[in-house]
Amino acid sequence: MPLHVRIVIVISIALLVVNATLLIINVGATIDSHAQYARSYEIKRSLSTFQSVITAAESGQRGYLLTGQTGYLEPYYVAMRSWRSELERLRTLTADNAARQKDIADLESFTAAAISRLKATISRSPQPGPNGTADVAGTEQATATMDRVRGIVDRMMAEEDARIEAQRREVLRDLLVAGGLALLTTVVTVAVLIGLNKLLRKYVRDRETAENAMLQANQALNEQVEQRTAELTELSQHLIRVSEEEKARLARELHDTLGSNLTAINMDLNWIQRRLPEGVREVKERLQRALKMLGETVELKHEVIEGLRPSHLDNLGLAFAMRSHCREFTRRTGLPCELDVQEDFDDLDPAWSIAFYRIAQESLTNIAKHAQASKVRIVLAREDGGVRLRIIDDGVGVAEEALSKPKSHGVVGMRERMRQMGGRFQIRKPEEGTGTIVEAFIPATNAAALSA
Asked: Which residues pair with 383 in a beta bridge?
C-alpha cells in the first residue's frame, strides 16, 4: 500500500477517535444535566402535591362548614395525615440546599398553624351548614395563613423554574460547542474519506458513483425524517406535560379566588336571610332564588375544576376518580357505565394515574359523541407485566381511516400519553359483535424510570 494512502488512513482513524471522544464527553454532560432536570422536576412535583394536599384540607373544611355534611371532611382528614410526609420528601430532595431547608421549615411552621386553625374552626362550629353557625373569623385567619403557605410554594416553584431554565441554557451552550466541534471533525473526516475513496476506487464507473450518491442522499433523508419525527414526538409530549401543569394551575386559581368569593357571598346571604322580618315575603323569595343560583354556581365551579384537574385523582386515588367520573358520565348521558376495578391503585405513580384517567375521559367523550352505544364497560387491572386499561362499548365502531386522519387529535393525544409513559396504545374491534375497544398498557419495567 502506498505511503500516502497509509497516511490518509491514519488521519481518518485519528479524526474518528476525536469525534467519538467528543461524543462521549457530550453524552456524559447530557446525562448529568438530565439528572439535574429530573431532580428539579421531582421537587416541583412534590411542591404541587403538597399544595394539592393543603388545598384539599381547606376545601374539606369549607365544604363541611357550608353544608354540614361530614363527607366533606374525608379529604380534610386525608390531608391531616399526609402533609408532613410530603414535606419530609421535599426535605430529602433538598438536603444539600440550606436555603431550601429554611423554606421548608417555614412551610412546616405556617402549615401547622393553618391546619390547627382549620381544626379549631371545625370544633368551634357545632352546627355547620347553610342555616347553622360557622367560625367565620377563624376561617379567615386560616385562609390568610394558607395564603402565606401558597406564597412560599409559588416562590419555590418559580425558583425551580428559573433553575431549570438556567440549566437548559447551559446545556444548550455545551451542545452547540460540542456539536460545532463534532461537525467540524465530521466534515474533515468525510473529506479525508472521500479523498481516500477516490484514491482506491478510480476504476469505479460513473453509474456506480451516481448510485452511491443516491444512496447517501437517501440515508441523509431518512436520518432527517427520523430526527424530525423524534422532535415532533418530544414536542407533543412536552405540550401534554405543559397542558396538565396549566390545567392544575387554573384549577388552583379558580379554587382559591372564586371559591373564597362564593363562600363569602353565601355567608352574607344566609346572614341576611336570618335577619329579614316576616313581612317581606317577596324579598325572601328573591333571596331564596339567589341562594339556589349561588349553590348551582358553586356546583358549576366544582365541575369546571374537576374537569381541569380532578381532585379525586390527587387525593383519593385512580380507582375512586374513575368511579366518580363514570357516575358523572352516566348522569350526563344516561348511558350505563360499568367499572371493573378490583383494587384502589393507591401505589400507582401519579404520572400513570393521570395518563390512564385522561385516556378514559377522552374515550368516554368520544363514545358520547360518536359511538351510538347502549352501554360502556371500563376494566382497570394489574397484570404480571404491568397495568392495563380497557374501555369497551357496543356502538357502531370506528373506521380505520378515521383513526389516521390529521384532525384525530383525541386519538393522537392518547397515543402520545402512552408513548410518554413507555406504554402501548391501540384501538381495535371486538372479536365478536360491534363496538370498539380502547386499550392502554404500561409495563411495570417503566416504574423505576418514571419515579426517578
From this structure: 386
Contacts of 41 (CB under 8 A, 6+ apart): 164
**Angle (CA) 49 51 53, round 5°:** 70
Q: Which three cell numbers stand for residue 28?
A: 456524559
The grid coordinates of residue 95 equal 438536603
Name the residue with cell 368520544. Answer: 366
Could you read off the pLDDT of 155-173 as tens digits, one per residue?
Answer: 888 888 888 888 778 878 8
Q: Hey, is 97 helix, strand or coil?
A: coil
Rounded to 5 degrees, what are φ and ψ at 372? 55, 40
* Phi, then psi, of 288 in degrees rounded to 5: -65, -40
Residues in the chain: 452
Contacts of 135 (CB under 8 A, 6+ apart): 65, 120, 121, 124, 125
Domain boundaries, the chain: 3-203, 317-451
Spell out the alpha helix ranges (H) of 98-135: 98-123
Phi, psi of 337 (to 5 degrees): -125, 105
Nearest residue to 125 via CA among 117, 137, 115, 134: 134
Label residue 196 exposed, middle or buried (CB < 10 Å: 0-12, 13-18, 19+): middle
pTM: 0.41
Return d(Cα 328, Cα 411) in angstroms, integer: 22
- Which CATH fold topology does 3-203 show? A middle domain of Talin 1 (1.20.1420)
Instruction: List, edge to edge, every strand of the sheet that includes 386-393.
Output: 337-341, 376-383, 386-393, 436-443, 424-428
Is the confidence at residue 451, as pLDDT, over 50? no
CATH for the stretch 317-451: 3.30.565.10
First-to-last alpha carbon distance for the chain, in angstroms, is: 54
